[in-house]
């Protein structure tokens, strides 16, 4: 019977003072575990804060880069527009003199719409204007559907 009191839930043993050091050790260990848990929560909150700050900075950089690219694109569009006007003016001048000007035909591509002063519709990067039968508008065709020979012919020559 006395042995059962010692092995019981601890109440009988605590009454006799035998498990007191063990209980304080368990309490101290639990306290240490709780402290480590709270410390790890603080560290996770700090890491999350740094991550969110880094993410915010990257978003700001992205928006800045995007705005710079838009500005560059706008400038390039203006330059292309001016170059087309210069080309058209030069062609008009040469046409008035009586000789057709073909010296710049390969340097700056134009369409019949842009030659008449109208803005050409934007061209998709993945499509090409395919030749059409006479009297029909040009057809759009995927660049990916071209044959290897056609793609090689369109690619710049390797040096």
Automatic annotation (TrEMBL):
Composition skew (Basic and acidic residues), residue ranges: 147-159
Annotated region (Disordered), positions in chain: 1-23, 90-159
Protein name: Uncharacterized protein
Species of provenance: Pleurodeles waltl (Iberian ribbed newt)
